[in-house]
């Protein structure tokens, strides 16, 4: 009986050890999470070796898996307006939902050189909004090594063909280049001193230019006078700015007055009146001119002593007679009434 | 076959067609009998009267007593596998970063179960067939039948239950040992750090479930095939020898075929990951 019990204990211990190993394995594996996931759709032209069930990783940490790879046949998706050839449905764990932003990159890469391919996510910048659940994004296709090799092969083939077909031309080019280099070498070695001198001159010029730039900077850029002038100009501009308001107001008023005047003058009736007034003034002036001429003639007559006024003004004798007569009349007023 | 050489019958000329036909009929009859044993075993698992402690004794015989053998063989197999694959990797791309991950995936999905199953088929299968076969030739089975006890219920069912449980237990243990020895080999031979080697990134549910399905399938197949081989023993001690050989060969064959079937089913269900 005790032997049987000891067998039972041994069997039980073995089963327990085995279960513990299995349990630890499942726990350590970690991949067997029952975490909630949310879908994201990634469109590819060619997802390379990506298979359904492949891991989805952020920074190397598994955060989900590729649930399904669907061939869409290049149909235009009404939601995104894109032509979709292959669409991968990702199941991403809810816990990383807050880390994937709308500008995140989805690309296919491999673990190791020839390792299994998986989908990596670059989570994007934190200032962008978060990627929506069920969003459709464009994935970055993996580099096509086969295409690259095909193109490289084509390029090499073309190059080889080109070399074969233009052997003579290429030979000429090589010969000419060799001759050119030889000539250049001859020139350089023959004029070494001059070239060195030229280089020395260029160096001097550079030094002088540097000095010049420095002086110009000191005199015209960092000069306090220039700074003062600039300050004055600044003040002036500020003042003008201050005065410009009232000045502009006055000018506006003056312009308004002018405008009123021009409006008044511009009236055809007023213009007619002004034209008439000018004509009258001209006529008046003409008459005044004639009157002045007449007056001048009269004055001439008077000056020459012609006529009554002339004799009265210009003849001394008459003046004396008049004086005599006035004196006589003063002394003898009766002569007004009575003639001797 | 023995009926062909029965006394009185004129010896017939052997021909390829006749041999082929005889082999086909043998296979069909054998498969049918095997199926019969399987169905009866399942029936007695559900309905049978079991001897108290028989299953535990068988579990001890199949499990605990195989532990050393399985540990040694799987330990060496783990070392050899990692060493040889490491040499190949070194020749192609000297990058060992995924050696552990791929090795572990291979172990979990297939190698631990299949190689462990084959080891158990040799040890457990031979044991069951020899035990039942010698009981047949010593007419103990007939005695059982005379006592109205079905030998399948009394002999095969405890071994079936014990094998089903202990194959899973032993394969989990065998996988652990193979991985541990592989990790040590990688560290010693190729300077792969243990942390790098213990990479579980390539394992998913599909791998674990496939591995467990194989464990149960092999655990069921070994006692059924071996029990059938033991029960169909004829002749004397030579017959027991033949029964043992057939048990080992057929159990191994069953494991290989079941492996192919389960791997294909796994590929269809979980995809090629």
Account of the 3D structure:
The complex is a heterodimer of chains A (340) and B (273). By secondary structure, chain A is of the alpha/beta class. Among the domains of chain A are: 33-143; 148-189; 304-334, no CATH class. Chain A contains eight helices and seven strands; from the N terminus they run αβββββββααααααα. Chain A has helices at residues 2-29, 145-165, 167-190, 192-221, 224-266, 268-303, 307-314, 316-331, and strands at residues 37-44, 55-58, 61-76, 83-93, 105-110, 117-122, 136-138. In chain A, strands 5-6-2-3-4-1-7 form a seven-stranded mixed β-sheet, with no helix packed on it. In chain A, strand 5 (105-110) and strand 6 form a beta hairpin. The longest helix of chain A is centred in the last third of the chain and has 43 residues, at 224-266. Chain A is elongated and about 215 Å long. Chain B is mostly helical and 273 residues long. Chain B is built from eight helices and no strands. Chain B has one domain (51-270). The longest helix of chain B is centred in the middle third of the chain and has 40 residues, at 151-190.
Helix/strand layout:
The complex is a heterodimer of chains A (340) and B (273).
Chain A lengths: L1 H28 L7 E8 L10 E4 L2 E16 L6 E11 L11 E6 L6 E6 L13 E3 L6 H21 L1 H24 L1 H30 L2 H43 L1 H36 L3 H8 L1 H16 L9
Parallel strand pairs in A: 1-7, 2-6
Antiparallel strand pairs in A: 1-4, 2-3, 3-4, 5-6
Chain B lengths: L15 H32 L6 H39 L6 H39 L2 H7 L4 H40 L3 H4 L7 H27 L5 H34 L3
Helix pairs in contact in B: 1-5, 1-7, 2-3, 2-5, 3-5, 3-7, 3-8, 5-7, 7-8
How many β strands of chain B by DSSP? 0
Main sheet properties of chain B? none
Domains of chain B (count): 1
Oligomer: heterodimer
Strand percentage of chain A: 15-25%
Range of helix content of chain A: 55-70%
Report the structural category of chain A. alpha/beta
Let me know the largest β-sheet of chain A. 7 strands, mixed
Broad shape of chain B = elongated
**Span between N and C termini of chain B?**
48 Å
Distance between the termini of chain A: 214 Å
Largest interface: A-B, 31 and 33 residues
Task: Strand order, main sheet of chain A: write it out.
Answer: 5-6-2-3-4-1-7
* Estimated structural class of chain B: mainly alpha
Order of helices and strands of chain A: HEEEEEEEHHHHHHH
Rg over alpha carbons of chain B: 22 Å
What's the alpha carbon Rg of chain A, rounded to whole Å? 59 Å
């Amino acid at each position: 009986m005790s032997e049987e019990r000891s067998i039972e204990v041994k069997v039980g211990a073995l089963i327990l050890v085995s279960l513990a190993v299995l349990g630890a394995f499942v726990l350590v594996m970690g991949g067997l999470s029952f975490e909630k996931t949310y879908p994201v759709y990634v469109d590819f032209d060619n997802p390379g070796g990506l298979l359904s069930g492949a891991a989805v990783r952020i920074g190397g940490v598994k955060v989900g898996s590729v649930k399904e790879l669907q061939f869409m046949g290049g149909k235009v998706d009404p939601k995104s307006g894109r032509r979709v050839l292959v669409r991968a449905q990702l199941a991403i764990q809810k816990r990383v939902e807050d880390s994937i932003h709308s500008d995140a990159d989805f690309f296919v890469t491999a673990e190791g050189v020839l390792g299994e391919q998986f989908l990596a996510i670059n989570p994007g910048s934190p200032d962008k909004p978060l990627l929506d659940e069920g969003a459709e994004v464009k994935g970055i296709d993996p580099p096509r090594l086969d295409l690259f090799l095909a193109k490289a092969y084509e390029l090499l083939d073309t190059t080889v063909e080109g070399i074969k077909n233009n052997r003579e031309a290429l030979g000429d080019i090589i010969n000419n280049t060799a001759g050119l280099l030889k000539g250049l070498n001859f020139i350089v070695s023959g004029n070494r001193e001059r070239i060195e001198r030229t280089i020395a001159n260029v160096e001097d010029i550079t030094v002088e230019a540097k000095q010049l730039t420095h002086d110009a900077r000191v005199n015209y850029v960092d000069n306090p006078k220039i700074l003062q002038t600039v300050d004055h100009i600044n003040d002036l501009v500020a003042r003008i700015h201050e005065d410009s308001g009232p000045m502009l107001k006055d000018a506006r008023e003056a312009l308004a007055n002018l405008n009123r005047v021009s409006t008044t003058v511009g009236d055809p009736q007023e213009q007619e009146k002004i034209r008439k007034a000018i004509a009258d003034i001209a006529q008046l002036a003409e008459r005044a001119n004639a009157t002045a001429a007449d007056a001048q003639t009269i004055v001439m007559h008077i000056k020459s002593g012609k006529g009554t006024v002339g004799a009265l003004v210009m003849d001394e004798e008459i003046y004396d007679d008049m004086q005599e007569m006035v004196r006589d009349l003063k002394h003898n007023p009766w002569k007004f009434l009575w003639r001797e | 076959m023995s009926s062909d050489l029965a006394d009185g019958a004129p010896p017939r000329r052997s021909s390829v067609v006749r041999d082929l036909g005889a082999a086909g009929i043998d296979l069909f009859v054998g498969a049918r009998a095997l199926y019969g044993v399987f169905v009866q075993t399942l029936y007695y698992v559900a309905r049978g009267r079991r001897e108290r402690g028989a299953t535990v004794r068988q579990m001890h015989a199949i499990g605990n007593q195989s532990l050393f053998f399985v540990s040694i063989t799987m330990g060496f197999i783990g070392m050899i596998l990692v060493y040889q694959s490491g040499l190949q990797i070194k020749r192609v791309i000297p990058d060992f970063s995924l050696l552990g991950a791929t090795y572990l995936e291979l172990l979990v999905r297939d190698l631990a179960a299949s190689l462990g199953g084959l080891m158990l088929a040799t040890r457990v299968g031979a044991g069951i067939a020899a035990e039942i076969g010698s009981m047949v030739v010593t007419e103990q089975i007939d005695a059982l039948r005379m006592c109205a006890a079905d030998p399948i219920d009394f002999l095969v069912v405890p071994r079936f239950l014990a094998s089903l449980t202990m194959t899973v237990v032993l394969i989990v243990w065998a996988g652990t040992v193979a991985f541990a020895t592989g990790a040590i080999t990688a560290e010693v031979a190729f300077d792969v750090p243990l942390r790098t080697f213990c990479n579980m990134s390539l394992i998913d549910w599909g791998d674990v479930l496939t591995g467990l399905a194989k464990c149960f399938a092999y655990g069921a197949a070994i006692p059924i095939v071996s029990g059938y081989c033991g029960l169909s023993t004829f002749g004397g001690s030579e017959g027991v020898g033949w029964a043992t050989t057939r048990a080992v060969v057929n159990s191994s064959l069953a494991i290989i075929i079941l492996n192919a079937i389960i791997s294909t089913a796994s590929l269809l269900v979980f995809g090629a990951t």
